[in-house]
Amino acid sequence: MADRYLRLTNTGPGRFLSRRLGLPQPTPLHRWSAERPTLDGGPLLWRTAASPALDEKELGAVLDHSGLTVRAEAEGGERYGAVVLDATGVDSVSALAAVHAELHPVVRSVARCGRVVVLGSRPEPGDHHQAAVQQGLEGLVRSLGKELGGGRTAQLVRFAPGATPQHARTTLDFLLSPRSAYVSGQVIEIAAESTAAPGADAGTDAGRSDQPTVVQGPLAGRTALVTGAARGIGEAVARTLARDGATVICLDVPSSEDDLYRLASELGGTALPLDITSAEAGRSVAGHLPPGGLDVLVHNAGITRDRKLANMSADRWSSVLDVNLDSVLRTTDHLLTEGALRRGTGRVVATASIAGIAGNVGQTNYAASKAGIIGLVRSLAPRAAAEHGVTVNAVAPGFIETRMTAAVPLVIREAGRRMNSHSQGGLPIDVAETTAWFSHPGSGAVNGQVVRVCGQSLLGA
């Protein structure tokens, strides 16, 4: 359903009226397209606070790959498409003051739909001064994301000891692009170990403004399976992974068979009508895979059966937990045990929800299942990387414009749309772009992360 309020407030009369009444004034977000593949508004300003822990030359090369012109010095009156502040060396309160000193003069110069990315270090348990100020960066970034407005976002990229800018290349490419339009106020940790296959970090130059269009995407030659692919977020994920070159296996319930086959045919993939909750689902999926196995497994299938706990039957409870959590656990276990996910490029991406982070009235079953996904990711990720060379991450959508949210009562729907830093709902493509970043063969240093795709919702984010 179209967001009529967003359209209204971006007309002359609508802007005047909403300003006079003190109502939200959402900015149309700049999302990636072949016509506008990079951020608008000016160059990327790269600044440093204290003595950085990252190699300056290597970081500069990674930032150059964003497609934006990189500047080391601010110029009066200039607008910036992005500001990147290297605060990895901040280890005292006095050094933390340098973060303010670097951001304060330029934060008003970030263009509409621009980006602020702060680079930090993992808080060290053996140094409580360093841990305190590095954790302080999280509070700063989350608050800044709520202050910026105008479609701008703020993120913290935290480097584990030994992690390098090259480990973060696909992450910075994503955050410094229109693909991350509905991701804000997030903390993403970069590990020193990477499951990426040799040469995988090279990625693709498609989307850089100074390069010719490259048809072959970063997932070319790789196979992805998306559950719940027939419609909504799952369909967007399947389309986006296919856009990036993957051969996509589209899985959904047999009752959606017609839509499933239509989508698979359009994408040049295959359809797999299957009840993912069946005891043999893992075996059926494994039997459908091509020789060499699977590179990307996206767990997107999910249902809701809402009632307050006092009114919720056992059937409503168990059906949601079975689809949203138990099937994910069983299928993932089977495919890992069988070695069906390729070492080095294997990626598991599960769909959580901000309901699993903040809770929601009438959704104890759904919230339990989505919080369970977060627990799965945090527990399995290090073992899957060590034993199988596979990463495990999750996206946690907020209010996303789908047929399901279109059926929500008007007042609740409008509250969901406005209660975030962007004052608007997200689109399925926003979740899909985040999934594609996790799925990238060069994202091997991103593991065990739960990234909210919610426009920095005021609930739990």
Give short descriptive properties of this protein.
single chain; 461 residues; alpha/beta; 13 strands; 37% helix; globular
Report on this model:
It is a single chain. This protein has 461 residues and is α/β, with parallel strands linked by helices. Helices cover 37% and strands 16% of the residues. The protein is built from 15 helices and 13 strands. Helix 5 (128-148) links the parallel strand 4 and strand 5. Helix 7 (232-243) crosses helix 15 (428-439), helix 9 (281-288) crosses helix 10 and helix 10 runs parallel beside helix 12 (364-388). It is globular and about 60 Å long. The two termini are 25 Å apart.
Main sheet properties: 7 strands, parallel
- Classify the secondary structure makeup into a structural class: alpha/beta
| Low-confidence sequence ranges | 201-215
* End-to-end gap: 25 Å
What is the number of E strands?
A: 13
Radius of gyration: 22 Å
Question: Quick recap of the structure?
Answer:
With 461 residues, the protein is an alpha/beta fold. 37% of the residues lie in helices and 16% in strands. It is globular, with a radius of gyration of 22 Å.
